[in-house]
Write a structure and sequence with these properties.
about 230 residues, alpha/beta, five-stranded parallel sheet, 8 helices, about 10% strand, globular
């Protein structure tokens, strides 16, 4: 039996690739996904499909509704920005940022990790081709790891946790190329912030733009079904 790892799995390109990387490194996989009140309910279905394709040991889906907290276009009636320029994507944190989302997700992952004695927690954050979210930066990951080892019984007993971010310095194209090498079926993944009722991607939100750019630069056909 290999070492256990918790992998936060949203059903998008980054988390799915991260799951495949953890498998390639020989970990027993325990995937964790969230229904957090997001408009895009299809991403949880995508996470289930990816978890089945990559054959995880267990896939835990938690319901934690963040909609009442507000503050994000992903969890409220606030419109999702479309066709933002690259300059804006690089300099302005968009309203699709969900307050403290990765902190919340990692905290649940940490709790499960301590419960099953899994000392590696994987998250597919990226600080290159992303929308500028502050909780995707290396500084945040380092700080959370320090906190995790101060706040847990395992940590203070000398069994430290590691927050693994294998994609942190990769472009979207590099991520797609690596995932393709590892056999990830990207047709199963879902990235759109504002999909149509039938699940088709809008093609205009930040996430769709970065996804299309990634496949184009990777030289790999984009399997996404867009609504226009």
């Amino acid at each position: 039996m290999g070492k256990k790892a918790i992998v936060l799995l949203s059903g998008g390109i980054d988390s799915s690739t991260t799951l495949a990387i953890a498998r390639d490194q020989g970990f027993e996989l325990y995937a964790m996904s969230f229904r957090y009140g997001q408009k895009n309910s299809y991403e949880v279905e995508a996470a289930q499909k990816i978890a089945e394709q990559i054959e995880v040991n267990e896939h835990l889906i938690l319901d934690i509704n963040l909609s009442p907290i507000g503050g994000s276009a992903l969890t409220t009636d606030m419109p999702v920005p479309k066709n933002r320029s690259e300059k804006k994507r690089e300099k302005i944190i968009p309203v699709t940022y969900v307050p403290a989302r990765n902190t919340i997700f990692l905290s649940f992952g940490l709790a499960w990790a301590e419960s099953i004695e899994a000392f590696d927690i994987f998250i597919g954050v990226n600080s290159i081709d992303y929308s500028g979210y502050p909780d995707c930066r290396p500084e945040f990951i380092k700080a959370f790891e320090q906190m995790a080892n101060l706040a847990t019984k395992a940590g203070v007993e000398g069994r430290p946790f590691r927050i693994q971010t294998p994609l942190i310095n990769m472009t979207k194209a590099q991520i797609i190329q690596r995932g393709t090498e590892l056999g990830v079926d990207y047709s199963l993944t879902q990235s759109c912030y504002d999909p149509a009722p039938d699940g088709k991607a809008c093609g205009k939100c930040d996430s769709c733009i970065l996804r299309k750019k990634g496949f184009e630069e990777a030289g790999i056909p984009d399997p996404t079904v867009y609504s226009n």
